[in-house]
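#lab-general

N.A. 3:47 PM
ok so I finally got the sequence cleaned up, no stray characters, all 473 residues accounted for. can someone with queue access submit it? mine expired

B.Y. 3:52 PM
send it over

N.A. 3:53 PM
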Amino acid sequence: MTTDVRPDETADPFATARQVADAVLFEGYVLYPYRASAAKNRLRWQFGVLVPPAWGTDSAEHPFQRTECLMEPRSGARLSAELRFLHAQRRTVQRVRPDGGFDTVERLELPDRVLVPWDEGAEERVTLVADVSKLTGEGVTVPFTRPAREETEPVHDAEGRLVGRLVRRCARLDGRVRLTARPIDGPYAALRLTATVENTSGWEPDAPGADRTAALPHCLVGAHLLLGLSAGSFLSMTDPPEWARGAVAACRNEHAWPVLAGAGGRADVLLSAPIILEDHPAIAPESPGALYDALEIDEILALRTAALTDQEKREARGTDPRAAEVIELADTMPPEVLERLHGAVRALREVTDPGPAAPDAFAPDVPGTRPDTPWWDPESDRSVDPVRDRITVDGRSVGAGSRVLLRPGLRRTDAQDLFLQGRTAQVEAVLHDVDGGVHLAVTVDGDPGADIRREQGRFLYFQPDEIAPLEDA
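B.Y. 4:20 PM
back already:
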């Protein structure tokens, strides 16, 4: 079957979604402290790794991703697809000999950086555009190949003298993208789109028990798909219209999860990523740049990176150009940019914006509340007072100042509660939540920081069935 695959003549529909896709692509690329010698960087690239079929049979990783979603294309619509992944390339370091030859070494010291062996990631893209009408039946299959290659980069010292070179080697990589569509059951003008990405490389391990490091050059790393409709829209997989809920539930997604990602909240672009995202994900506007480690927040990473020693920064700069960019970012970050990273409250912006606030549909209907005060503000309800309120536990009145015996229940998930079993404590406040639940704020007897906790209002919290009243002092 011939396929009409051609460049898209329209403007780039993926420009907005690609910002989030970049974070997915480079998640775990190089982890703080951004040095190849760091133990955590010995196991990188945890998401979206599509392995060769011969190696995947004996591992917990897979050679394919499968994305299924619903779309409502209009007449004459075309589907754009962009597969993105990293192709791992092995970098070795060589020092020049007096005779002009080169010797492979474990490190090459330079005044501004220390070069060491490293696995770099070269970004790869596979793009196609096809008429939606041609996706029914056998659909569209596009095979792709990235040939093996070797490149060298000379390394010079500050005076311009040749001191060594970097040798980069990439292994052959084969794969394919397959797109098919079929109508869903019922009187609906919607199609179920199935997009499959496969690693078809014929590489096999040289010996039984070969490790992941040997397979990585033949893997699609951080693989994800961007899908776009020229006319029409995709349906949300988490909040579909009522008529589509059954069809959405029947979609089968394996090793990928599709979310709406169109600019301005539009539904004409879908991002299928190897991690679970919400519809219309976005990069935080406060983020000053890519730090490649989503397990920590930007402020912590920036502060820790700025605190590295000069020698550690030299090693990081020599690890990878992207690591060098992180060091430069942390060293040159203005104070006002760092201050912007120190927390952002988004949920209250609608309330604090100028103009009258919209009625809060979730405000509890409690007698005595003040309608001109937000429901979450303690001043909105004068009928409750955490310091004076009391409750009855085992027939006894318990409130601020009462002494209790702690017996954390099975519902507790904090392992530290095991150390509090049987300890005595003093109740500091009785708190009521908006769902009608009651919580007791306590300080533990014998805690040397109890006074500080009271000053800061930082207590431990237990429910009434997790305490036993004692005689008050």
